[in-house]
Amino acid sequence: CxxxxxxxxxxxxxxxxxxxxEEQNGTDSAKAPKVACEERNTTGIERFTLHILNVSQDLxxxxxxxxxxxxxxxxxxxxxxFSASLAPHFxxxxxxxxxxxxxxxxxxxxxxxxxxxxxxxxxNILLFQGAKPMARFNHTDRTLETLKDFIFxxxxxxxxxxxxxxxxxxxxxxxxxxxxxxxxxxxxSVLFLASFVLYATLRTESIRWLIPGQEHEHQE
Length: 220
Known about the structure:
Layout: H1 27-31, E1 51-53, E2 70-76, H2 81-96, E3 101-106, H3 111-116, E4 124-129, E5 132-137, H4 144-155, H5 167-171, H6 184-210, H7 214-219
Parallel strand pairs: 1-3, 2-3
Antiparallel strand pairs: 2-4, 4-5
């Protein structure tokens, strides 16, 4: 999908930031993780799931700038079919990597963040260490396996091998069913056209009554 709210480049060609290293599939990448993540203590945590930010929540409030904690953040839109197809795979990731954090946000509701991090094409996945973006997931094949490989190559953290996409992952938290967005431009155009026609009709009737002879002709 292109930029939220308008046409743009397809997801196969996401915008890249020079500061973000691209994922490498070579053996060197697997041997030398790029990001030294501090794994969180999972004691007492019974359910491992991702958190979806609402429109009033700021991503920076969920990232610790002075920490080495790592967070995988998904920028998506609910009406993008690529976001919907990715959803169940991303929903399963917190169980595969319980020591990492996972967040998702609707890019159309957080346009300033999309501009800041160059995530105008969705879906877009960034790996943060603290509050700093460290790597971007660039594969067009967005599955649990490719996501697990990406995280392992970047952090050296191995995924739980018994995790697979389940029926619950298809149900949420991220929606796997498309939600139709409102085409505000089309709606505005229709309302403007209707208003113009109504105005022109009323104006024409007013002019008819002002023209000499029209009133008598109408009365006859």
